[in-house]
Specification:
Layout lengths: L2 E5 L4 H12 L5 E4 L5 H10 L7 E4 L4 E4 L1 H11 L11 H29 L8 H21 L13 H16 L7 H12 L1 H10 L9
Parallel strand pairs: 1-2
Antiparallel strand pairs: 1-3, 3-4
Helix pairs in contact: 1-3, 1-6, 1-8, 4-5, 4-6, 6-7
Bound molecules: glutathione (GSH).
């Protein structure tokens, strides 16, 4: 098979790439990476020395593609399917990329800060950084909330790369800093994302590991 995805089902960025693959029924070989296993980590670092997943490998051209957004752009270009995850219209493509960046930088990044801070060794917590992350996430949610009053998906009627980014970001953000009571439109959007078959599948696959996430 041409495509291999190096990933772990619990990882939010891996879920983002999985949604894109499942959305278009793209065939790929799943390569599970357990970064807690030193041998598996060392082998993965040879593929992508930054050591962060997901990473896609395409036998065609022997291409290694890291970074979830770049993976989705690559799939949209080389393995297109019924869901045009990056719109053909240049202006809509730019808006999609903007929303993808928004969810990654202002929801996923602070969400990860909250998760990883809880995993730090005793005495190494970073309460100031956590407060900053919470404030950033709250600002992001305040911007998403009015947008999602009228929209089904991040770009309107069409499911795009922005929704691939939004689903795991909002899922884990809600786990760390529940927003259902304060941001009902965003919560309803998350509920729609969870029902979307591509994300429902990624979540089912993450389910056996979810208890590992500190909250
Ligand atoms: N910018 C990267 C971020 C990837 C990322 O942060 N992956 C996390 C899992 S969600 C990871 O590999 N963490 C392992 C580590 O840092 O050791 C992307 O979009 O793919």
């Amino acid at each position: 098979m041409a495509l291999t995805l190096y990933f772990h089902p619990l990882s939010s960025y891996c879920q983002k790439a999985l949604i894109a693959l499942y959305e278009n029924g793209t065939a790929f070989t799943p390569h599970f990476v357990d970064l807690m296993d030193p041998a598996a980590r060392a082998a993965f670092m040879k593929i992508w020395p930054i050591g962060k997943f997901p990473v896609l490998h395409d036998d065609a051209g022997d291409r290694t593609i890291p970074e979830s957004s770049i993976i989705i752009e690559y799939l949209a270009r080389h393995y297109p399917g019924p869901s045009a995850l990056v719109p053909a219209d240049p202006d809509r493509a730019r808006q999609t990329r903007m929303r993808d960046r928004f969810f990654d930088n202002y929801v996923m990044t602070p969400m990860q800060k909250l998760v990883f801070d809880r995993m730090r060794p005793e005495g190494k917590a970073d309460p100031y950084g956590v407060e900053e992350a919470k404030a950033l996430m709250a600002r992001a949610l305040d911007l998403i909330e009015p947008e999602m009053a009228t929209k089904r998906w991040a770009m309107g009627d069409d499911f795009t790369m922005a929704d691939c980014a939004a689903a795991p970001a909002l899922f884990y953000a809600d786990m760390q800093m529940p927003f259902g009571a304060t941001h009902p439109n965003t919560a309803a959007y998350l509920a729609r994302l969870r029902e979307r078959p591509s994300y429902a599948r990624a979540l089912r696959e993450a389910e056996p590991y979810l208890a590992r996430v500190p909250r």
